[in-house]
């Protein structure tokens, strides 16, 4: 199997779906000849033309809303916002329009659109270009939220997202774009709502998302040297959330650490912790712990930014504290 | 005035449908028979009817919180609409949407909308889909004077013009954004002037003259079908009722209301129809009587329909 970067995997997913289905098209900020801010749509403009790879003005509401309107009219748009932080400009078109149409209209509409947005800190982009906002989207009934960590998951989930008849928010950590992994050449799907156990273990469950999956795997290596066995569970989609796989892991390990880059307070880990507390309380031998960013905007200066971003060390510490 | 009797009679019929539908809602809302709240279209009938008479079933519209008129004019089923507004399971949205969210995607009705300015981007997207598929279909985006100030509207006008999308922006300027008069919320007198900023035609029409609306929108629809891009049409009109039923309307005077009620679009059209010799006064009475019957049947359907089963609560969240 060929090694590909996360970015190449996404690019391949887009190309294969556009090849397969003429209703699939791309619109967004600088997605055309420029190839997207981070390069995800590179080459697609030359291959599919400007009729299917559309550069929009920097007006996020109409990017999201036009995708919704086109999707409700039978197309399958894949919209890109340059940074997830810009969703604030366009939020109404997502959560009040695209997502609610089906329910409000009594099931008589479908809105098969994908909204791709890079997120995460680590490139010195400061408070308006670095957030992890997945918890916002998890709170919206009718939406699906993908947050893949590996290149193979990124490809398969993007293909699933494009074929899904519901609006999907697709969150890509910008520091994952260069990560390499085995990615099948052919087209395939990775189902939403199916967590992946990235490493099996027996002592502590670490539920980690996006870039924190790599931190969790790193922490697992460190802890293994001390004879502590970590199970790393990657939910891959937060909405729907595969609660069952998480619960099964906790029933086995009796301990849970949740790791994400979003701020901890009311973050995605709060929901995961609540689910486990409600459904597997008796299995827990220790309080549930969260490893997350502190409750502040993302700072600019490199040492401050690094202090903001949680990593393997914090996970190691959290696991040790349980024992 | 066109001498196509069929179109003229249809427009007259639809105006009366809207008038009677809204009057019925006014009565039943006051009697406490309708849950939630309703925004009535009384007095503005000529806009929806004149505009939608230019469209086919393949064409789309986006509507507003004051949407009943648009939906009826686009061919919405009166029974299903009435049942929805009464919160019944037989309604357009199985009682899940109510007055502000009625839609019929098969008829190109992409929904009324509870958000002021919410429809512009959606209409732009529907028009984008038509262009993408190389159909001749057009989308009409209805929006109010209040919505004309929203960023979503400006973004939509800009993109539609930059991409020459087949969309017609039909602004219903009824003078007030809820209680706030136009002069307090914008510096321009004519919203159509804003079209110049996007290099598209901007047209002001008498929104209480169904023929004027029909002609202006007809031109814009033809232009859109030819691939020449969008038009902004401002229809000057007035709502007879408050923003919502129950609004005491303390922000406007009765003289102003009376002045506009004297410009009632229905008798004005009636006069023209009879004068032209196209239709007799007796025929018009016959039309009204038939509409009344249809409305009575819709009301009966709505009232006798069951409320939704509670099991419907979690249905249709996802496709």
Structure characteristics:
heterodimer; A: 323 residues; alpha/beta; Rossmann fold; 2 domains; 7-stranded mixed β-sheet; 5-stranded mixed β-sheet; 12 helices; globular; B: 319 residues; 5-stranded parallel β-sheet; two-stranded antiparallel sheet; 11 helices
- What is the N-to-C succession of helices and strands of chain B? HHEHHHEHEEEHEHEHHH
Q: Averaging pLDDT over every residue of chain A, what do you get?
A: 98
Q: CATH homologous superfamily of the largest domain in chain A - what is it?
A: Thiamin diphosphate (ThDP)-binding fold, Pyr/PP domains
The pair of chains with the biggest contact is: A-B, 42 and 47 residues
CATH topology of the largest domain in chain A: Rossmann fold
| Rounded radius of gyration of chain A (Å) | 19 Å
Q: What is the multimeric organization of the chains shown?
A: heterodimer
CATH superfamily of chain B: Thiamin diphosphate (ThDP)-binding fold, Pyr/PP domains
Main beta sheet of chain A: 7 strands, mixed
The CATH topology of chain B:
Rossmann fold
CATH architecture descriptor of chain B: 3-Layer(aba) Sandwich
Query: Stretches of chain B where pLDDT falls below 50 for ≥5 residues?
Result: none
**How many runs of DSSP E, i.e. beta strands of chain B?**
7
Structure description:
The complex is a heterodimer of chains A (323) and B (319). Chain A is built from twelve helices and 14 strands. Chain A is α/β, with parallel strands linked by helices and 323 residues long. Chain A has two domains: 3-182, Rossmann fold; 196-322, 3-Layer(aba) Sandwich (Rossmann fold). In chain A, helix 9 crosses helix 10 (268-280). Chain A is globular, with a radius of gyration of 19 Å. Chain A starts with a strand and ends with a helix. The model of chain A has no long low-confidence stretch (mean pLDDT 98). By secondary structure, chain B is of the alpha/beta class. In chain B, 43% of the residues lie in helices and 10% in strands. In chain B, helix 4 crosses helix 11 (281-304). The longest helix of chain B has 26 residues, at 5-30. The N and C termini of chain B lie far apart (47 Å). The mean pLDDT of chain B is 97. The chains are: A alpha/beta (323), B alpha/beta (319).
